[in-house]
Amino acid sequence: MKLSIELACTSSPQWVAKVMADFDAFLQDHANCERKASAMAMSFVAKFPDRVEIIPELIETAIEELEHFQSVYEIMERRGVQLPAQMGKDHYVQQLVNECRSSREERFLDRLLLASIVECRGAERFRLVYENLQEPDLKQFYHQLWASEAKHGNIFVKMALNYFEENIVYKRLDELNEIEARVLQSLPLKPALH
Predict the structure, then answer these.
(1) Is 63 helix (H, G, I), strand (E, B) or coil?
(2) Distance (Å, whole) CA 47 – CA 149
């Protein structure tokens, strides 16, 4: 049984160049993404408290994402970079959420699978950042994040398989993966995770 996906498209070298050209802006966005990922995991707990099989992993994931936020914030502090006064909308995530179906069960499945895809995209992009960084401490940090995000991509598929047939999970995962590629390729490049 496969728990992760091959993304339908790869991030462009131009995206990496944008990040490397304005790494402080990337750090600000990255911090926000980690904070939102923690909140997203806890929102599953709040919205689906009856799904007791996955609550411990959701809490663990939320804590780990919050620890990532703390680590990114510490890097920002060392570099004299502040958190932005206001968080802009994440058009990537918003467009993906707009693709979720509306019935409670279908939306639950779609949100879990989108979480998987977003984590897999994060892992792919952290790998690219790691490969292009020169500073040893930052390079090591993003190498560790790459492994962590890849693991999170697996967790959400595994959670979905607790509640839905394997063929339903993978069919929808493939559909959402194709949608994610179209969304990603439609957005302007910027020094941000998405």
Answers:
(1) helix
(2) 23
52, 157, 160, 170, 187 from 165: Cα distances, Å: 18, 12, 9, 9, 33
158's tokens: 């595994």
What is the model's pTM? 0.94
Long-range contacts of 67-75 (CB under 8 A, 24+ apart): 68/34, 68/37, 68/145, 68/148, 69/31, 69/34, 69/35, 69/38, 71/141, 72/27, 72/30, 72/31, 72/34, 73/31, 75/27, 75/138, 75/141
Fold observed for domain 13-82+102-186: Ferritin (1.20.1260)
Q: Is the dihedral of CA 31, 187, 135, 148 positive or negative?
A: positive
Domain boundaries of the chain, sorted by first residue: 13-82+102-186
What would the two tokens of residue 150 be?
Answer: 């890849």
For residues 4 and 149, give the distance between their C-alpha atoms in angstroms, rounded to a whole number: 11
Instruction: Give per-residue pLDDT as tens, 102-133.
Output: 999 999 999 999 999 999 999 999 999 999 99
φ, ψ of residue 5 to 5 degrees: the values are -125, 160
Q: Which residue has the tokens 């909308």?
A: 89
Q: Is 184 in contact with 9 (CB distance < 8 Å)? A: yes
Q: How many CB atoms lie within 10 A of CB 62?
A: 19
The pair phi, psi for residue 181, each rounded to 5°, is -60, -45
Question: Closest Cα partner for 160 from 31, 5, 3?
Answer: 3
